Amino acid sequence: MKGIINLLRVLLIGVWGLALTVCVSLYFDAHSPRQLPGGHAPWTVADSAMEPSYCKGDLAILNMKQAAKPGDAVLVKGETGPLFRRIIGVTGDQYIFKGDGGEESFLAGPQAVTGVCVAYLPGCGDAAAFLYSLPGILLVAAVGLALIILPGRLSGDKKAAPKAPQPVEPAASPDGPPRPARAPRDRYTPRH
Fold it and tell me: How would you label 110-120 residue by residue, b for 16+ Cβ within 10 Å and e otherwise?
């Protein structure tokens, strides 16, 4: 049982360390997508321009290394910051970008595409944004520490209490029957 708890503790430390590292790295770069191992980055949809396909507050998972093509939902560098839009066509050497629910479109070159959306989690963007805020990092740290400490506490890894000495039965005396065993004394008391 102790081996399983130690293995669980090591796994929890690894998962907790990874989650804390991701939260801290995203905290320092919250206004542009931060590439994680594997070339992916989370991005919270900030406006309703892509509704009904993607709503404000959805979490888009972007592939930062994938080449964009018409029809892809992408994160593109706009004049005021990153925008989540769809490529609806190509004209010359530029893409035409437009939101699914809007009428405005704009042109930009392929170099303006930051990442291509490969998956999304509806409504999870606000929770993800919380996790890479300062209170979220503190919450991840506290929960991780609790999960690492609790398995040891629940398994009874406490120091064992000292056992009371067992009474020793005296050997039979040659003169007669054996004497009854005495209970051990906690301290010495002198006889008067």
Answer: eebbbbbbeeb
% pLDDT > 70, the chain: 69
Backbone angles phi, psi at 152, to 5 degrees: -70, -40
Residue 43 pairs with which residues in a beta bridge? 60
Which tens digit of pLDDT belongs to each residue from 106-115? 898 889 998 9
Encode pLDDT of 124-164 as tens digits. 777 777 777 788 788 888 887 777 777 667 666 555 555 66
Q: Which two tokens stand for residue 76?
A: 């593109």
pTM of the model: 0.57
Sequence-distant (6+) residues with CB within 8 A of 114 are 32, 33, 62, 64, 74, 75, 76, 77, 82
Q: Which of 87, 126, 80 is nearest to 106 (CA)?
A: 87
Cα–Cα distance, 173 to 171 (Å, whole number): 6
Handedness of CA 24, 25, 28, 30 (dihedral sign): negative
Q: How far is CA 118 from CA 11, 60, 100, 104, 153, in A?
A: 29, 8, 17, 24, 42
Res 74: pLDDT: 93
